[in-house]
Amino acid sequence: MNDLASLGITQDTYRTFALVVVIAVSLWLFLKKRGQPEIYTDRPDWIEEVTRFEKPTNKMILKETEAPCQPVTKIGGAPWWPQGEERPKCEHGHWMTFVVQINLGDLPGQLEDLSGLYSFHYCIDCQHQGNMSFGWRDDENKGYDVRVFQDLSVENDGLRIVGNPTIPPRTVQLEEIHEIPSFSDLPFDLGNRFHKESYNYTPPDFDPHGFIPSDWVWHDLKHVHGSKIGGHPTWVQNPEWPETVNGTRLVFLAQLDGLIGNDAAWPNGTVFLFVHRRESGQYIGEMEMQHT
Asked: Which tens digit of pLDDT belongs to each residue from 164-209?
C-alpha cells in the first residue's frame, strides 16, 4: 500500500479498481458460458432414443454475392440452365422465377452415387394474381417447376434472368451439423415427451426479437430451423411427405425459409424440396409449401 500511496493512489481507489476487475471477469465468464450448450453427462434414457434419429444436414449460410452460372448450389440470380432446354413457364404463360439450384453432391448421408443439378422455379406472377401454388397436393395451381439435370457437360444457355427477379442472388456456404428430427417426425410418445421437456428451454444464442432461429433445441441437441440441405424437415404444419404412385416417400432434399428474400412467396413459411431416383436412374423432384 505504501508503494500505491507514493503513486498517489488511495486505498479506496484501489478497492474500487479491484471490485471493477472482479465484476468484469465474472461477467465475461458468464457470457462465455452462456454461448455454449449445457451438456448433460447423465442424460435420461429418452434423450438417447432421440439421438438415434440424428442425421447430418448442411446448414445454408448465405452471402450477399452472386455465384457464377455454373452447376453449383446457389440461390437467386441467374441459374445454370442447359442449352437447348426451354426455361420454365407456368400454365398461364408466365416465365417462372428462378429460386434455387442444388448440386446433389451437397446432400449429406442420404443416397449414394448422387450426381446432377436440382433446379427449382416458382411463378411469382401467378402468386401476385392470387393463384399461389402450394406444392404436390395442390391440384388447382401448378405454378412451379422442379427438375433434375444429370448431364452437366452441356453448355449453359447464356440467357441469365428471364423471370420476375424477386429472389436476390446469394452464394451458399455449407456447415455440416448433426440434427435430430422435429417433434412431428419422432414416434408419437417420444415426440410428445421431448416437446414437453424442451418447451421452456432457452437456447444459449436466444434472439428475443425472433429474427434468427436458434439451432439448439435442448442442451447439446440441435435442429436447424432455417434453410438447409438434407437432414430432417422443419414442418410448419403437419408433415406432408410427397410419394410416388407406388407409395414410396421421396427423399427430403432441402428447405428454404422466408429469409432468402423479402419478396419470396413464403415470407412466413417454408418451402420443402424432395427428390426420388427411379429404378431407371432418372431423378424426379417435388415441392411442398407450408405457412404459419
From this structure: 888 899 999 999 999 999 888 999 898 888 888 877 777 777 776 6
* CA–CA dist 85, 196 (Å, integer): 51
Contacts of 178 (CB under 8 A, 6+ apart): 54, 55, 56, 57, 222
C-alpha distances in Å from residue 1, one per residue of 4, 5, 10, 78: 5, 6, 8, 71
User: Is the distance from CB of 214 to CB of 206 less than 8 angstroms?
Assistant: yes
For the chain, how many residues are written? Answer: 292
Distance CA(39)–CA(55), nearest Å, equals 19
Class of domain 45-291: mainly beta
What SS3 state is found at 20? helix
What phi, psi does 10 have (nearest 5°)?
-80, 165
pLDDT above 90 coverage of the chain, percent: 45
What are the extents of the domains in the chain? 2-34, 45-291
37 vs 148, residue with greater confidence: 148
